[in-house]
């Protein structure tokens, strides 16, 4: 049977949110995951190549994955709201996903700006299996809130990330209590240039371990 792929219309706080729902290529979903895209004002959409690889890696780990466009992006209603509104968009999206798959555990994931969204949301709420941040932008404001998260904080970072440089990520990570995980991908820039296959495999391996086993840092 072909895997489920749908384009649902979600109801967000600023109106309609354009979305894409994809079940795993093989077998029934083991968990549900939200995948959030990079900065809307700099061309970020749910079809960004890193977000696409993030979603595929999660599906290969057994997730049903929901991607969506933040307000004002693509066919989504509204206008950019300086992170605060986008956190509420993500809250509406994960609420929809959990209602659609009520028996599954859930996780939050995002790239760049999207990683800020999901960590802020996940540190406010309880219940996520993990918060997976790709290309976490240390230069986008204070990140002390990460010290209060109830969920495991998982970071996958390019070795040459200009928005989350290695020394800054390592200093942030060292301050955080467990549970946490940091993996480096040898890549040319913030967008994991030249290393998207390696990125996808890291996503698959880490997500599989946190839902169904143990992952070592």
Assign the CATH superfamily: Alpha/Beta hydrolase fold, catalytic domain
Q: Tell me the number of strands.
A: 9
Element-level helix/strand string = EEEEHEHEHEEHEH
At the fold tier of CATH, the topology name is Rossmann fold
Approximate strand percentage? 15-25%
Major β-sheet annotation: 9 strands, mixed
Give the terminus-to-terminus CA distance. Answer: 37 Å
Mean pLDDT: 95
- Give the count of helical stretches: 5
Radius of gyration: 16 Å
Helix content: 25-40%
Per CATH, the class reads Alpha Beta
Describe the oligomeric state of these chains in a short phrase. single chain
> Which regions have little confidence, pLDDT < 50, spanning 5+ residues?
213-217
Spell out the key features of this protein.
about 220 residues, Rossmann fold, 9-stranded mixed β-sheet, about 30% helix, globular, disordered C terminus
């Amino acid at each position: 049977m072909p895997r489920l792929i749908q384009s649902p219309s979600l109801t967000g706080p600023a109106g309609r949110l354009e979305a894409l729902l994809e079940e795993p290529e093989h077998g029934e979903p083991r968990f549900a995951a939200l995948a959030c895209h990079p900065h809307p004002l700099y061309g970020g959409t749910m079809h960004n190549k890193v977000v696409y690889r993030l979603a595929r890696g999660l599906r290969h780990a057994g997730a049903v994955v929901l991607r969506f466009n933040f307000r004002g992006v693509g066919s989504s209603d509204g206008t950019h709201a300086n992170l605060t509104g986008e956190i509420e968009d993500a809250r509406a999206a994960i609420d929809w996903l959990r209602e659609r798959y009520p028996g599954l555990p859930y996780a939050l994931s995002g790239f760049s700006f999207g990683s800020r969204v999901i960590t802020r949301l996940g540190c406010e709420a309880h219940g996520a299996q993990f918060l997976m941040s790709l290309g976490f932008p240390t230069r986008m404001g204070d990140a002390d809130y990460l010290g209060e998260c109830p969920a495991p904080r998982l970071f996958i970072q390019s070795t040459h990330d200009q928005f989350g440089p290695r020394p800054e990520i390592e200093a942030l990570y060292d301050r955080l209590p467990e549970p946490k995980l940091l993996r480096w991908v040898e890549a040319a820039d913030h967008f994991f240039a030249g290393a998207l296959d390696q990125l996808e495999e890291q996503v698959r391996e880490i997500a599989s371990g946190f839902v169904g086993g143990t992952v070592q840092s």
